[in-house]
Specification:
about 230 residues; alpha+beta; Nonspecific Lipid-transfer Protein, Chain A; 2 domains; 12 helices
């Protein structure tokens, strides 16, 4: 039995590494396991509880999520900590170095969206929705606009700020927003990329809008998917 354990550990140490000096190869050594990058994606807007991560990653088992979090923690990409009272719960969060991977998601997302096999109708999380808006924002279409756009998805809220020809977003309480979208995360990309009329999605009960209605209608024009390869 002891020999079996040693063999198993040896395979784990050597079988999942590329043994290549290329930085990209080492990057895959760190985050190339299935689900690892998506776990990182879900942490890009701040700390999350284990159950919340599992809920937003459709098809990911608790066992695999545990393995990925342990691997990312061992690599120095993720850390866990306990929130102070009254919460007193354990959360996972990216390290400063882990957050530096954000541009990787934007470049990869824009590149992969050009795939003819990309299916935008599949489930999408709140975090992924907000990252998509940041990635696909068209500054020229926004025409120098300055605005704060709020998003409420169940118990989570985000604010996207458009200023200086950029869209930035963060997970914070809604305040001083010009318009607020509330509802299903998937309804937002369906609106901005699918170009469905806002009234139709509202009629289905999947999205509600409060605030500047004209800005909400115009918001749709600020985004577009890249041409297919």
């Amino acid at each position: 039995m002891k020999l079996d354990k040693i063999t198993s550990e040896s395979a784990k140490a050597t079988g999942r590494r590329y043994h290549d000096a290329c930085g990209a190869a080492h990057g895959l050594d760190l985050v190339g396991e299935r689900w690892a990058l998506l776990v990182m994606r879900e942490l890009m807007f701040g700390p999350r509880r284990f159950g919340d991560l599992k809920s937003d990653l459709c098809g990911l088992s608790a066992n695999v999520l545990t393995q990925r979090l342990e691997g990312l923690e061992e690599a120095g990409i993720v850390r866990k900590r306990k929130l102070p009272p009254p919460a007193s719960v354990q959360v996972y969060e990216l390290t400063h170095w882990g957050y530096e991977a954000q541009p990787v998601f934007e470049v990869l997302g824009r590149w992969a969206a050009r795939s003819p096999k990309h299916d935008p109708s599949l489930p999408i999380s709140a975090v992924s929705t907000m990252m998509s808006l940041r990635t696909m924002f068209d500054a020229e279409a926004a025409g120098g606009l300055t605005a704060r756009i709020g998003f409420v998805f169940d118990d989570r809220s985000f604010v996207a700020t458009i200023a200086d020809d950029e869209l930035t977003s963060e997970r914070i309480e809604i305040s001083d927003c010009d318009v607020v979208f509330s509802g299903e995360p998937s309804a937002v990309p369906e609106y901005v990329y699918g170009k469905r009329p806002l009234a139709d999605i509202e009629a289905e009960g999947r999205l509600t809008v409060t605030g500047d209605r004209a800005l909400a209608e115009r918001f749709q024009t600020f985004f577009g998917l890249p041409e297919k390869a």
